[in-house]
Each structure stands twice: as structure tokens, then as C-alpha cells.
Amino acid sequence: MPFIKDKALAADSFTAVADDAALADGPVLVSLARFQKDRETLLARNTAIGVRLKSDESPELLGEDVNRLSLVALEFPKFRDGRAFSWARMLRTRLGFTGEIRAVGDFLYDQLAYQHRTGFDAWELPENLTLDDFNRALAEMTNVYQPSADGKKTIRELRAGL
Asked: What domains are defined for the chain?
């Protein structure tokens, strides 16, 4: 599965660790349940930590630890489930998260630009999407209607000369 970070193909430095598996060396990506269960051990490792949130798990469940994480992976279980858009925006605007926000799961080409606008900066692309598709999707929309985490002026603001 292609991995994109900083708008280019990249190697994923995180190892996904199942809830019942031993922790790998180096940066790990764990579920929220695993993070809550092994919080002290994970934080004491002095290496990058990522947490994968299911679509029904709010980033607010991470509490103050959100700023101790390097990565939050937000799951799209079905392309019709858009809660991860809200979670990404919440992470960037309300919680002040500056680490990597990764889109994982079932999403479509048409959703890539808005994922980027709401705060995503890394993607595990579905097999049917390529880097060229990704870059084309981000360039298609030059003006936007909704305000978002990227701070881009909306069409209304542009018309009003703001």
C-alpha cells in the first residue's frame, strides 16, 4: 500500500503493533485501547508513539497526552463515514496538535483535498490510488466554500475583500 507524506511517496517509520503483540523497537503505532492500557510503558520508551483512532473514538480521549504523540492515525472504516474529517480539524485547531495526522482505511479520490484541508498530512493510500492521483486531487480545487484548519480564505471572504 503506497504511503504518502509531505506530498511524496515515503517509507513509513512506524511499526503497527497489535493489542496482544510485543512492542517493536523504534516508533510504534498502537490502538487507543493499547495506549490507555500501556500508557506508562509507552511513554517511558523515549521513542515516537502513534495512536490509531477508530471513527467513533474522539481525539479528546487522548487528553493531555495528545501533545506527547508524534502521530495520530484516523480511520475511515467506510468512505461514507466522515467523522475523521472532524477529528483532524479538532486535532489541529482545538487541541493544537502539530504532529502527523494520517488517513487510513476506505476513502476516495474526491476526499483527498478536503482531508488535506482539515489537517491530514500523511496517507496510506488505497491500492486504486497513485501519487499522481493524489497530487491531481490536491490541485483541483483553487477556491473553497468552507473554512477549515488550513486557514485558506473562502470564496465569501475573497468576494468581500477580506
From this structure: 3-159 (3.20.20.70)
Q: pLDDT per residue over 128-158, tens digit each?
A: 888 999 999 988 888 878 878 888 888 888 8
pLDDT tens-digit series, residues 43-99: 999 899 999 999 999 999 999 999 999 999 999 999 899 999 999 999 999 999 999
Q: Label each residue of the chain as H, E or C.
A: CCEEECCEECCCCCEECCCCCCCCCCCEEEEHHHHHHCHHHHHHCCCCEEEEECCCCCHHHHHHHHHHCCEEEEEECCCCCCHHHHHHHHHHHHCCCCCEEEEEECCCHHHHHHHHHHCCCEEECCCCCCHHHHHHHHHHCCCECCCCCCCCCEHHHHHCCC
Give the residue among 119, 123, 111, 122 at the shortest CA–CA distance from 150. Answer: 119
- Cell numbers linked to 113: 483535498
